[in-house]
Amino acid sequence: MAANGVATVAETADRDANQGLRARLAEVYGQYARLRSDLDDLQRRLASLRVSCVSDDGLVRATVGPRGQLVDLSLDRGIYREADSDRLARTIVATAREAAARSAAQIEEMVAEYLPAESGTRKFLRDNELRSLLGHHDAG
């Protein structure tokens, strides 16, 4: 401060700049805190995700978790009317595979608001190719 007790132009500019930086820092910290809270919520939603699919014939219901793992399987009593175990096995696999694909699609939707469309993580969720996650691309 100048000898006469009046702030100089430079001191006023510095004070204004500091106030601007503090305001920007508070804004960025607020955004970080919201994102952190949102990500905690996303993590809880992902952990509790369950997706079920029913086979076309209605005899098989498969439920998968967030990683596509089979967590429940229900078979209608009608499966016993036909003794084709190979067909039943194919139906179970196809139904579980469809549930896993739907689970992956739901996860991609959940993370879409946090990641750019062409990020390696989102590509990995879509195509399940480790190359996408690592950022490696074949030439050609």
From TrEMBL:
Keywords: Coiled coil. It holds the Pfam family YbaB_DNA_bd. Residues 25-52 form a coiled coil. InterPro entries: YbaB-like_sf, YbaB/EbfC. This is YbaB/EbfC family nucleoid-associated protein.
